[in-house]
Amino acid sequence: MTNFGRFFFDLLFPPACLICQKQGSFICASCQEKMSYLARQICPHCGKPSLTGQIHHDCQKGCFLDGLVSAFPYRPLFKEVIRQIKFEPFIFSALEELIINALGYFDREKQFLLFRRFVKQEHPVVIPIPLYKSKLRQRGFNQAQIIAQTVAGHYSLPLEEKLLFRVRPTRPQFQLEAKERRQNIKGAFSIDQERLGNCRQVLPPILLVDDIWTSGATIREACRVLKRAGIVKVWGLTLSQ
Ligand SMILES: [Zn+2]
Ligand SMILES: [Zn+2]
Predict the structure, then answer these.
(1) Rounded-to-5 percentages of helix, strand, coil across the chain
(2) 123-151 per-position pLDDT tens digit
(3) DSSP character string of 161-209
(4) How are beta strands 164-166 and 67-72 bridged, if at all?
(5) How many domains, in total, are found in the chain?
(6) Model confidence, pTM
(7) Is the pLDDT of residue 10 over 90?
(8) pLDDT tens profile 80-124
(9) What DSSP letter does each residue of 5-67 carry, written as one string?
(10) Ligand 1 centroid to 82 CA: how many Å?
(11) CA of 72 to the centre of ligand 1 (A)
(12) Which residues sit with Cβ closer than 5 angstroms to ligand 1, an ion?
């Protein structure tokens, strides 16, 4: 949204906390406190604790993510905020506020040192997990895309929204068991080879962005496709896990 648009939006919908309705912001400081931040990160392959979110040394085989960072635990308060954010007109302003809180956490905590180094030194291309085109049309927006845009802006990173796409629709992952999730998502992504060819000779590292990591099946599958296309390094970023 432009600043001008934001001005009118705020006039029409003055921000009030989505949880306690206190005026001033969509997620007030005390509700953000209650929602809490993730105390520790996990290895994106085995799901066990990893100090920095980096994949364990012993887990590094195949086309796996090199690291993963998330800010909020996937608990009732966060779920409630996300549930409300999904309705317009909050999707842009309230979600942005949540992302900015998450980015503040990534910027100040020691556990994200390796992630910050990856961002600053390797300058990855930011890619949102895409929706299938009919689903995007039906919903009107892709949350992952909104998050990716804010993340790219915050770190001054390039954003690439067309390289990775869905080749077929999938069932909603939350309805499925872990094993079914992997089958459901397998082969769902593809890469625009022509766009990849336009990239520099050396393929850039990538930061894959999504809203929530549950089993991780979706981001893992997207990562597999990117790595098989020759991308060497891929980190993941989600708001919650
Ligand atoms: Zn509140
Ligand atoms: Zn591991």
Answers:
(1) 45, 15, 40
(2) 999 999 999 999 999 888 899 999 999 99
(3) SSSEEESS----GGGS-HHHHHHHHTT-EEE-HHHHHHS-SSPPPEEEE
(4) unpaired
(5) 1
(6) 0.92
(7) no
(8) 988 888 776 667 888 999 999 999 999 999 999 999 999 999 999
(9) HHHHHHHHS--B-TTT--BT-SS-HHHHHHH---S-EE-TTT-SEETTSBPPGGG--SS--SE
(10) 14
(11) 16
(12) 17, 19-20, 22, 28, 31
Whole-number pLDDT of residue 6: 63
The domain that contains 213 carries what CATH number? 3.40.50
Tell me, what amino acid is at 231?
A: I
Instruction: Give the pair of three-digit tokens for residue 224.
Output: 């597999």
Which pLDDT score, from 0 to 100, does residue 89 have?
65
- 165-177 pLDDT, tens digit each: 999 999 888 788 8
Domain that holds residue 136: 3-240
